């Protein structure tokens, strides 16, 4: 399995056994994720998107960002089984993909990670704006939808620059243009800076501003236009969980950027441990696709009401529901 192929009969049996044990642990973790976390993440992400889009009128600014993160989570849900059932993660692998599939999966993974991190970051900044200036509508649902569109566009463009490095790292060195760009460390450095350092600094800045506002109690704190107080707890929990789950993955990118390719390590006996930690870090990153919708489901007070309205609407089918007719009559009068 994967890195254990580096060993031969001249290597220590202790190192060979360690490699096999790490491979077994990683295979079990991958299987647990596929059996438990993957179906939960898929169901809750779909539920979050469907429930909110079916209640567009009652959507708030945080709802738009969480829908955006749920869509990115669905992309991760699509990538996870392909990777976790390959020989890179599992001893009981089903398939082994080529370089083209590897690059495609990597780009989708990078796009999802950028969308998740920047949605979390801009949610923090917009929450501060909403707390400080509740009636300016700078962080309205309409504006937030356009911001989310820019997030996806920016993620694709950023991933395209990394794509050039990854593609050139897998093609023939006879191409002069690509031979000068065969540097995977540069691609990891780009992702590390844009995907982690910038969002981390922005989130830290947003939280400093939010804490400063919370200390300064004003008559506006009772303004009905302000967000539900539970959103603050949801924001804090989502930011902490996202950074906890994604930090190990970006730390492996940092190590790869500084130390270079694992194959160039002077002591190759450390390579299985490094590879194991890198795979576990990626598993944690995949876990964000089910942790976020679960938190949203438990901590958002309005989600249950939206879900009940959707179920009643489906139950009524084509006929207009009584509660909807009464609501329409109230609006008309």
Automatic annotation (TrEMBL):
<dbReference type="InterPro" id="IPR047143">
    <property type="entry name" value="GPER1-like"/>
</dbReference>
<keyword id="KW-0812">Transmembrane</keyword>
<keyword id="KW-0675">Receptor</keyword>
<dbReference type="InterPro" id="IPR000276">
    <property type="entry name" value="GPCR_Rhodpsn"/>
</dbReference>
<keyword id="KW-1003">Cell membrane</keyword>
<dbReference type="GO" id="GO:0005886">
    <property type="term" value="C:plasma membrane"/>
</dbReference>
<feature type="transmembrane region" description="Helical">
    <location>
        <begin position="65"/>
        <end position="82"/>
    </location>
</feature>
<feature type="transmembrane region" description="Helical">
    <location>
        <begin position="31"/>
        <end position="53"/>
    </location>
</feature>
<keyword id="KW-0472">Membrane</keyword>
<feature type="transmembrane region" description="Helical">
    <location>
        <begin position="146"/>
        <end position="167"/>
    </location>
</feature>
<feature type="transmembrane region" description="Helical">
    <location>
        <begin position="189"/>
        <end position="213"/>
    </location>
</feature>
<feature type="domain" description="G-protein coupled receptors family 1 profile">
    <location>
        <begin position="44"/>
        <end position="296"/>
    </location>
</feature>
<feature type="transmembrane region" description="Helical">
    <location>
        <begin position="234"/>
        <end position="255"/>
    </location>
</feature>
<keyword id="KW-0807">Transducer</keyword>
<protein>
    <recommendedName>
        <fullName>G-protein coupled receptors family 1 profile domain-containing protein</fullName>
    </recommendedName>
</protein>
<dbReference type="InterPro" id="IPR037487">
    <property type="entry name" value="GPR146"/>
</dbReference>
<dbReference type="Pfam" id="PF00001">
    <property type="entry name" value="7tm_1"/>
</dbReference>
<feature type="transmembrane region" description="Helical">
    <location>
        <begin position="102"/>
        <end position="125"/>
    </location>
</feature>
<feature type="transmembrane region" description="Helical">
    <location>
        <begin position="275"/>
        <end position="296"/>
    </location>
</feature>
<dbReference type="InterPro" id="IPR017452">
    <property type="entry name" value="GPCR_Rhodpsn_7TM"/>
</dbReference>
<dbReference type="GO" id="GO:0004930">
    <property type="term" value="F:G protein-coupled receptor activity"/>
</dbReference>
<keyword id="KW-0297">G-protein coupled receptor</keyword>
<keyword id="KW-1133">Transmembrane helix</keyword>
């Amino acid at each position: 399995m994967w890195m254990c192929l580096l060993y031969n009969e001249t290597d220590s049996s202790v190192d060979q056994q360690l490699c096999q044990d790490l491979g077994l642990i990683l295979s079990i973790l991958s299987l647990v994720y596929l059996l438990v976390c993957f179906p939960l993440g898929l169901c809750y992400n779909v539920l979050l998107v469907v429930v909110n889009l079916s209640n567009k009128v009652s959507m708030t600014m945080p709802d738009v960002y969480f829908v955006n993160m749920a869509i990115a989570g669905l992309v991760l849900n699509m990538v996870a089984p392909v990777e976790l059932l390959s020989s890179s993660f599992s001893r009981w692998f089903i398939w082994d993909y080529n370089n083209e599939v590897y690059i495609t999966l990597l780009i989708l993974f990078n796009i999802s990670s950028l969308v998740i991190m920047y949605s979390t970051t801009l949610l923090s900044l917009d929450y501060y704006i909403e707390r400080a200036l509740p009636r300016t509508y700078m962080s309205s649902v309409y504006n937030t939808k356009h911001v989310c569109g820019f997030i996806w566009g920016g993620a694709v463009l950023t991933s395209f620059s990394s794509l050039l490095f990854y593609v050139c790292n897998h093609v023939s060195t006879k191409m002069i243009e690509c031979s000068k760009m065969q540097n995977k460390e540069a691609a990891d450095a780009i992702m590390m800076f844009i995907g982690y350092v910038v969002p981390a600094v922005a989130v830290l800045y947003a939280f400093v501003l939010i804490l400063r506002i919370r200390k300064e109690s004003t008559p506006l704190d009772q303004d009905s236009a302000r967000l539900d107080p539970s959103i603050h707890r949801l924001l804090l929990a989502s930011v902490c969980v996202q950074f906890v789950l994604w930090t190990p993955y970006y730390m492996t990118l940092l190590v790869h950027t500084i130390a270079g390719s694992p194959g160039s390590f002077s002591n190759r006996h450390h390579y299985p441990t490094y590879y194991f930690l890198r795979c576990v870090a990626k598993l944690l990153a995949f876990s964000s696709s089910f942790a976020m919708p679960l938190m949203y489901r438990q901590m958002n007070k309005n989600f249950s009401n939206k879900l009940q309205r959707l179920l009643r609407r489906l139950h009524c089918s084509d006929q207009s529901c009584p509660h909807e007719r009464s609501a329409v009559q109230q609006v008309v009068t």
